[in-house]
Amino acid sequence: MLSWTRGFLAALALGALLSAGPAGCGPDGAREGTERKAAEPVGRLLDRADEEGRRYREVDEKGAPEVGVEVQPDTGGDWDIRLTVRRFRFSPPGTEPRAVPGRGHVRLLVDGRPVALLRTPRYRLPARLVPRGTHHVTARLHADDDTVWATDGAPIQRTADITASPVESPVESPGESLRGSPGGAPGGSPGGSPAE
Q1: How much is the pTM?
Q2: Helix, strand or coil for residue 36?
Q3: How far is CA 74 from CA 9, 83, 102, 154, 196, in A?
Q4: Residues near 73 by Cβ (< 8 Å), separated by ≥ 6?
Q5: pLDDT band for position 14 (50/70/90)?
Q6: Which residues pair with residue 116 across a beta bridge?
Q7: pLDDT band at residue 13 using 50, 70 and 90 as cut-offs
Q8: Would you say 139 and 157 are in contact if contact means Cβ atoms under 8 Å apart?
């Protein structure tokens, strides 16, 4: 009697599984949760675009990614850029060009001109790209298909203002101007050529 009960329960369980179908799998046997989510459109493409024609991809503000930008001068005249992101991950080079929620890269702009595509939160901005004066450094979030992440019709970005001043030459003390330099020209460089 024990073997009949065990066999009956096994057949009953098998029948229940077969009638329910392949649980958690799509028509091609793939896991439904991951494949279906990746195939669904992300956000809504808007008719608006950035300066270079990249369309805005509108997402709900509640779960939208965020970016912050901090710019500091370094000792060599260049600028250190540090980004902070929330609900966003940088995609590595070679990532498939499709929009995935909260993933992508950052385009760095100086005064509205694109200067770099960033896949990490740190970047050294060369001084040659920031001439003397006040400038706007903008970090703008993009999906991997190069659409611009947006909320309320505006790109998700953050801007920092920086002011570049010319490199100042060291101030001479009164005693130095009397002594001169090894090349014989007061205040000059050792070879006598003008200091840059």
Answers
A1: 0.66
A2: helix
A3: 74, 16, 31, 32, 19
A4: 79, 80, 162
A5: very low
A6: 108
A7: very low
A8: yes
